[in-house]
């Protein structure tokens, strides 16, 4: 494996690890009566603001994009990031976090198949094996294999919508990253997603909650940096140097990390199926990076 591919694999894994902490932040903010949609949109607003300020101070050239590409940047933000997050949140509300997670992580299938005609990626047997291992691992980690998880019809549709939105971000961003810096793509994706998301979330309630509990604002800023800026920057950087299908599989380490954090931080338990799932996910990463 070349140096760039090794770095890309590390960036993809880092993104998955950072996304694995989302559950911890959700656990904290839920104590303040904040819904997942409000948290998602707030993270995007804060992330866009932080990146915009950084661009003004250090590199205004990062704002520059072709007028024609604004539509695709909006697609990446609204129809991919926002749609994926909203769909995922609804899937969780109508089923469970475990059920939604296993549906979301069918996304490597979409990414791998769509990337063949759109990004001209090759569909190798190794990649197919890795995708199968990753999805199996996510199913084990979620609890579906032990019969603990069920899928109501509407939750299934929203979960698959989340998977498709996540997959399409990998594809659209993969195209845009051939022209722009990863931070530029991130800024406009967050900006458009935040603008549209403000019409869906109760941001007045969020502002009121922050005014009552200033510590909540600190949690939101940290969450935006870890779960949005640093994680998506790592993911975008990986997409710049590695096939989208490979990146999506490696990033599927997220539920394994979330499970470990649940055990270590929240005192949750991990059964045989959960441990087997973690091994499958790690196996998928090993297969891709041999």
TrEMBL record:
InterPro entries noted in UniProt: AA-Vitamin_Transporters, EamA_dom, EmrE-like
Sequence ranges assigned to domain EamA in this UniProt record: 7-142, 156-289
Chain ranges passing through the membrane: 12-34, 40-58, 70-91, 97-116, 128-149, 155-176, 183-203, 215-235, 247-266, 272-289
Protein name: EamA domain-containing protein
Similarity annotation: Belongs to the EamA transporter family.
Keywords recorded for this protein, A-Z: Cell membrane, Membrane, Transmembrane, Transmembrane helix
Subcellular location: Cell membrane
């Amino acid at each position: 494996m070349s140096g760039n591919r090794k770095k890309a694999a590390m960036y993809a894994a880092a993104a998955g690890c950072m996304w694995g902490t989302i559950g911890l932040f959700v656990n904290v903010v839920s104590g303040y009566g904040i819904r997942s949609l409000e948290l998602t949109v707030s993270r995007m607003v804060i992330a866009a603001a932080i990146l915009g300020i950084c661009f003004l101070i250090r590199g205004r050239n990062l704002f520059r994009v072709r007028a024609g590409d604004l539509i695709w940047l909006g697609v990446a933000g609204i129809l991919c990031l926002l749609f994926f997050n909203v769909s995922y949140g609804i899937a969780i509300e109508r089923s469970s976090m475990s059920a939604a997670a296993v549906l979301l992580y069918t996304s490597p299938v979409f990414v791998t198949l769509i990337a063949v005609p759109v990004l001209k990626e090759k569909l190798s047997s190794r990649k197919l094996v890795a995708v199968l291992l990753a999805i199996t691992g996510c199913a084990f980690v979620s609890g579906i294999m032990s019969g603990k998880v069920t899928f109501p019809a509407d939750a299934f549709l929203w979960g698959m919508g989340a998977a498709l939105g996540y997959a399409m971000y990998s594809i659209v961003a993969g195209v845009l990253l051939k022209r722009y810096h990863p931070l530029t793509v991130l800024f406009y994706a967050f900006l458009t997603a935040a603008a549209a998301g403000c019409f869906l979330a109760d941001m007045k309630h969020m502002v009121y909650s922050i005014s009552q509990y200033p510590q909540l604002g600190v949690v939101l800023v940290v969450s935006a940096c870890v779960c949005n800026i640093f994680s998506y920057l790592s993911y975008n950087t990986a997409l710049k140097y590695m096939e989208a299908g490979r990146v999506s599989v490696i990033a599927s380490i997220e539920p394994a990390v979330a499970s470990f954090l649940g055990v270590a931080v929240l005192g949750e338990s991990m059964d045989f199926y959960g441990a087997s799932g973690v091994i499958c996910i790690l196996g998928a990463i090993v297969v891709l990076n041999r």
